Structure to design on (761 residues):
């Protein structure tokens, strides 16, 4: 390579190309593969810049005059395309990449499309060269989404849309895809693989000034796309590489258009074909999603057709999950659940984000807990958020800050295996909070974890923000919630039952207001005194919640996806739990399975499913439950509530023999000794259980005991316990167990049952 005067060769090429010059420049490019790209560009910037723009000029001119030099041109363009692909993934500044890889004027683009129009030979090699150039432009805007705002990128895609996609020839090629084992020419690949690939990357940016919107493009393509998927989903093993590419990038356009469109049922109708439902299309997509040879080809961070196809299908399913009837189908479709689990070992970050979004909605709590993606998604979110924050368009790899924060909000509502314990991560969230108010909702969700509370309290700037408040109602509601969580453990549970003026409070998410209204109207006719919903604008929601809970005897929680995601609902039901109200959970969303904090809170209770039963029948079950004496949900068991004077009497007359203590005795003993959180963690324990716990503690190190009790506390209550509480608990148990007690015999089987029941291993 050192013997080649590349500057002179490229200067001559631009003026008078020859076979010899074409070969020498091609050899030079081929020789750079084993050299440092940054050094090559730094040393030969000007000649390489000239070569790149000469190539665009050639593609825009009539190349039929090449004659005997055609192979040399093809080889040079192939080697230059490979060089450009390396450039895209290099550390070169974006200005260098776009100046090398994008045409200088729209006239050049017009020339390229004029040459495409003139081609009648479907095997024309010019198309394969344009193919490589458009592929690299697609890859460039995938890696650098801010380029979608460039006029030249917009113009290329406008020409693709008008000259290729809306062309009758494109429809002919789509129709040919509806037959088994289609054959492909260069022109067909260019039409239904290359152009859709570039167009879909552009459409993900949701351009404002594009001649067509997502709904119009979808209406044009959806019917043909549905036919193609139905036909080929049963013969995946026989797909050719070309068919895989075409289906991948057609799916990309469909997914890009859906990301541009709001949720409305008219969109689903576009996919309707005779004798097939939307669920049939989903079933066909699941077949493709489950195909294991595709899983084996998924790359970690770079693109290939298999990775992009899985990613695009997951994106399509993520749009469809917004329809409640389809979400019900997802939750009932065991093959989809298996597909989500089989993809769980992927190391592809973008795919992981889309996979987690579905896992969060569909998988059970236990499945989520074991999910590799779920356990590592926090780091991916932060990486994407930080990259998007630096981007002028506030996007990273076509994923916007808003989409990322929506996903992170969902994550913040789960019991994360690895919660945020890095001050840099929290400080980053605080830094972007003024621009994105949703961050306050995220911080509210995170502040339910006492470990994160401690980190937040260390940030004086954040504490000052909380104290000053906000005129933004959404932010102020979150601030009230965060401050409530900071003070939660200081709450005194001292309301007397005689002060209750309502029988029932109904806890619900605003999205489920219709079912709330039905329940309210039925209950007040019985008649029960039902605390009316009161969520006026500009009111302090936390203060309102406190009054509602303190004035009520019992709480009905209307469980749904939106309820689980609502911080206000969580604060309300946790306070009701703390105030020892009887809790009656009801399921109001088909196939909904409570997980995370909600699952921990109702553990041991049997929810009434208003979707499995007709409403009148479900109401009968609910009314029967209301007639049962008030109980308090404590951990895994439902404990009958006693009048306050009787409880006090029990605490005064509690036996000195711990082996004879009842569950109420244990709970009251813990409360009397200022361990209310441990009373919740150990709810359901009898005195005999406490003796076994003492024996267990004596056999393990203090560190092990602390870790196990902390883990159990988070699992059961969503809150952590402090080291001080654990040490005090252990001392009190040892002190109490040393008191002479009546011997209690325990066989091995019973011991195993005990430790299994209460989560110790």
């Amino acid at each position: 390579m050192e013997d080649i005067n590349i500057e002179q060769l490229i200067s001559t090429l631009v003026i008078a190309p020859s076979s010899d010059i074409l070969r020498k420049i091609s050899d030079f490019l081929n020789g750079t593969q084993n050299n440092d790209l940054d050094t090559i560009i730094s040393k030969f910037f000007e000649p390489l810049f000239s070569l790149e723009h000469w190539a665009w000029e050639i593609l825009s001119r009539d190349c039929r005059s090449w004659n005997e030099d055609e192979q040399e041109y093809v080889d040079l363009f192939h080697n230059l395309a490979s060089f450009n692909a390396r450039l895209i993934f290099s550390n070169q500044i974006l200005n260098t990449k776009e100046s090398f890889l994008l045409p200088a004027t729209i006239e050049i683009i017009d020339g390229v499309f004029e040459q495409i129009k003139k081609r009648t030979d479907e095997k024309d090699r010019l198309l394969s060269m344009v193919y490589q150039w458009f592929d690299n432009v697609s890859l460039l805007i995938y890696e650098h989404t801010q380029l979608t705002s460039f006029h030249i990128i917009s113009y290329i895609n406008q020409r693709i849309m008008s000259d290729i996609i809306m062309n009758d020839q494109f429809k002919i090629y789509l129709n040919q895809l509806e037959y088994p084992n289609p054959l492909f020419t260069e022109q067909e690949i260019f039409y239904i693989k290359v152009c859709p690939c570039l167009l879909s990357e552009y459409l993900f940016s949701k351009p404002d000034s594009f001649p067509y919107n997502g709904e119009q493009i979808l209406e044009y393509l959806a019917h043909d796309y549905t036919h193609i998927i139905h036909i080929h989903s049963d013969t995946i093993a026989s797909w050719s590489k070309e068919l895989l590419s075409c289906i991948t990038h057609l799916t990309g356009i469909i997914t890009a258009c859906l990301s541009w469109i709001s949720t409305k049922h008219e969109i689903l109708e576009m996919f309707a074909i005779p004798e097939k439902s939307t669920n049939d299309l989903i079933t066909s997509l699941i077949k493709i999603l489950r195909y294991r040879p595709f899983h084996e080809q998924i790359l970690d961070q770079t693109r290939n057709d298999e990775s992009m196809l899985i990613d695009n299908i997951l994106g399509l399913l993520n749009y469809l999950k917004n329809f409640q009837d389809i979400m019900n189908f997802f939750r009932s479709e065991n093959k989809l659940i298996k597909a989500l689990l089989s993809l769980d070992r992927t190391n592809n970050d973008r795919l992981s984000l889309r996979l987690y979004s579905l896992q969060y909605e569909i998988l059970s709590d236990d499945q989520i807990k074991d999910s590799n993606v779920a356990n590592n998604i926090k780091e991916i979110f932060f990486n994407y958020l930080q990259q998007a924050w630096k981007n002028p368009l506030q996007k990273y790899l076509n994923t916007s800050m808003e989409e990322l924060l929506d996903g992170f909000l969902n994550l913040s509502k789960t019991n994360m295996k690895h919660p945020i314990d890095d001050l840099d991560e929290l400080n980053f969230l605080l830094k972007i909070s003024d621009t994105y108010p949703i961050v306050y909702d995220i911080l509210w969700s995170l502040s339910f974890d006492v470990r994160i509370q401690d980190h937040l309290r260390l940030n004086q700037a954040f504490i000052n923000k909380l104290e000053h408040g906000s005129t933004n109602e959404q932010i102020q509601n979150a601030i009230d919630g965060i401050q409530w969580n900071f003070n939660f453990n200081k709450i005194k549970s001292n309301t007397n039952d005689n002060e209750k003026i309502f029988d029932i409070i109904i806890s619900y998410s605003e999205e489920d207001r219709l079912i709330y209204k039905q329940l309210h109207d039925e209950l007040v006719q019985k008649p029960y005194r039902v605390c009316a919903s009161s969520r006026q604008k500009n009111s302090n929601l936390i203060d309102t919640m406190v009054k509602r809970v303190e004035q009520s005897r019992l709480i009905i929680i209307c469980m749904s996806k939106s309820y689980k995601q609502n911080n206000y609902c969580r604060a309300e039901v946790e306070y009701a739990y703390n105030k020892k109200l009887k809790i009656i959970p009801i399921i109001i969303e088909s196939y909904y399975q409570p997980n995370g904090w909600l699952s921990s809170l109702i553990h041991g209770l049997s929810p009434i499913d208003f979707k499995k039963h007709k409403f009148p029948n479900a109401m009968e079950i609910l009314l029967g439950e209301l007639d049962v004496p008030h109980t308090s949900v404590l951990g895994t068991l439902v404990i009958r509530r006693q009048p306050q004077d009787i409880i006090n009497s029990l605490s005064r007359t509690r036996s000195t023999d711990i082996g004879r203590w009842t569950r109420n005795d244990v709970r009251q003993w813990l409360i009397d000794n200022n361990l209310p959180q441990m009373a919740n963690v150990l709810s359901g324990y009898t005195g005999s259980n406490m003796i076994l716990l003492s024996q267990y503690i004596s056999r393990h190190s203090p560190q092990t005991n602390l870790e196990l009790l902390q883990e159990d506390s988070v699992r059961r209550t969503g809150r952590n316990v402090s080291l001080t509480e654990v040490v005090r608990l252990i001392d009190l148990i040892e002190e109490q167990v040393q008191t002479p007690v009546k011997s209690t015999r325990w066989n091995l089987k019973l011991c195993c049952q005990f430790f299994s029941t209460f989560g110790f291993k």
Observations:
- Residues 70-88 form the longest helix (19 residues).
- Residues 498-634 form a domain with the Rossmann fold fold (CATH 3.40.50.10140).
